[in-house]
Amino acid sequence: MKWWVFTDGHVAGPYSAETLGRRPSFNGHALVCEDPLAGEERPPWRRADSVPTLRALLEGRPFPPDPTLDDVADHRRLAERLSELESASRRNAAELKALAGRENQLRGELARKELALRELSRRLAAASSQAAAVEALEDGLRAVMEGLRGHEGEVRELGEQLKSLAGAANEAVDRADLAAAETAQEAAGALEAAKALVERSLKSARKALAKADDAMALAAEERAARAAGKPPKRRDRRPRPPVSGAELGLPDVTSVDPPKF
Question: What is the mean pLDDT of residues 115-130?
């Protein structure tokens, strides 16, 4: 009969009882299981010291020999190796912890990059729609330019007409300025004539007032003579010279030209 054995963290076998007895790692605490025949179910695992044949084999095994210097050296090397392995294990644990932190950091950056990518995709979609609108505007502008090219002759003719109208407008402005200057000169002349007329009218009014004063003085003398019982003095009456229209304050229609506006 052969046995499967579970030692050192793994299953080995199947071994015969004599082969198990020669394995250094085999002891009474090892788990063993009979190798089933074809078609049979695997029996449960048991401790080696619970199996009579294997317990007798373990009891009849001689004690191990005393350790030699080589065994001590091997043990020391094994202890050093275990210490190195423990140090390496601690370093590996620290590196794994750092890698875990770096992984979390990278995951956060990846999440931020995904958000930025979504925002960029949204902007690209908006830019694509705007680009389509710009292309449509460019097509419309090209159509307008092509339509204008077909009317270049009309545009030139319209420009010539505008130039001629601008020249006519400038000439009309010049004529208006000249007429305004002439009208200003005529108005100044009329103003001078009106001033002269006013002066002549004032002179005639003074003469008339002087004559009225003389007549009033003569009438006063006659009233005084009558009151005193004396005959009034006789004065030779000379013929009065004719009075011109200028002396009476009348305008001289032949000397003043009406202003032209």
Answer: 87
